[in-house]
Amino acid sequence: MSNKPSWKPVRADLTRPSAARIYNYFLGGSANFAVDREFAHRALEIFPGAREYARLNRLFLQRVVRFYLDQGVRQFLDIGSGIPTAGSVHEIAQRLNPESTVVYVDNEAVAIAHSQLVLERTPRAEIVQGDVRDPEQLLGVPELTRLLDLDRPVGVTMLAMLHFIPDSEDPVALLGRYRELLAPGSYLALSHCTADQLPELDAAGELYRCTSTPATLRTAEQITGMLSGFDVLEPGVVFTPQWRPDSEEDVGPDPERAASYAAVCRKP
């Protein structure tokens, strides 16, 4: 008997682990395969905190969505959304404001298939297959423009995604293109893996080079440079649990163990 789930799209590559499916596994999801779980177990041997990294990143996402709503934002664009699990953008935003509209973007076949199942009864949310590296094409997709009015502020999230854009593809210029295309008053939140204060993460980064999405770990200084032209909001570029935590207990004694920086900025 095959252990492949019936929902697997024919385009899914099961010969190499996928970052989206590995992340889903770390979050406790079921949309992953043996090749992803085997990779995840090797990663956990190098960095046992990988599940905590994913959990803290998800909590950061939820705080960002609430922050956007507090700023009057009602349109959300989650680029590199991955495979939906509990606490996704539309769940948080539409629970607090049912008029919120949400567009997810990913290019991974399993992420698309699962998102379509999750969202099929949610008319104010949509999944779009697209490439973050082509913002002009992505922001013109009819499924996106049907739900988002790009002449008005949008709350954009790019969480656990930009470390998959190598230096050769110029992530600074890429974010600059998004900045030019977004309406004034739009927001951008990002989280980005780092080996700052965690040298063992360099080995995990090397491990990811055998996946379909190799990772580039960056420093706080490099991530700050990526946000040129935006107004970076307080507290600046910090580890994920340090960005406007709900309580000091949520930060804990070793925030660097999150292995990821976070920042939220605004287009002036």
Shape label: globular
Number of beta-strand segments: 8
Report the major sheet: 8 strands, mixed
Share of helix, binned: 25-40%
Mean pLDDT: 89
Helix/strand class: alpha/beta
What is the N-to-C order of secondary-structure elements (H for helix, E for strand)? HHHEHEHEHHEHEHHEEHE
Query: pLDDT under 50 segments (min length 5)?
Result: 1-8
Structure description:
- The chain is an alpha/beta fold and 268 residues long.
- It has 11 helices and 8 strands.
- α2 packs antiparallel against α9 and α3 packs parallel to α4.
- The N and C termini lie far apart (57 Å).
- 44% of the residues are buried.
Q: Quick recap of the structure?
A:
By secondary structure, the protein is α/β, with parallel strands linked by helices. The chain is built from eleven helices and eight strands.
Kindly list the characteristics that best describe this protein.
268 residues, alpha/beta, disordered N terminus, 38% helix, 8 strands, globular, 11 helices, eight-stranded mixed beta sheet
Could you outline the blueprint of secondary structure elements for this entry?
Elements: H1 19-26, H2 34-46, H3 50-70, E1 75-79, H4 89-96, E2 101-106, H5 109-119, E3 125-129, H6 135-138, H7 142-147, E4 155-159, H8 171-181, E5 187-193, H9 200-207, H10 220-226, E6 231-232, E7 238-239, H11 248-251, E8 260-266
Parallel strand pairs: 1-2, 1-4, 2-3, 4-5
Antiparallel strand pairs: 5-8, 6-8, 7-8
Helix pairs in contact: 1-2, 2-9, 3-4
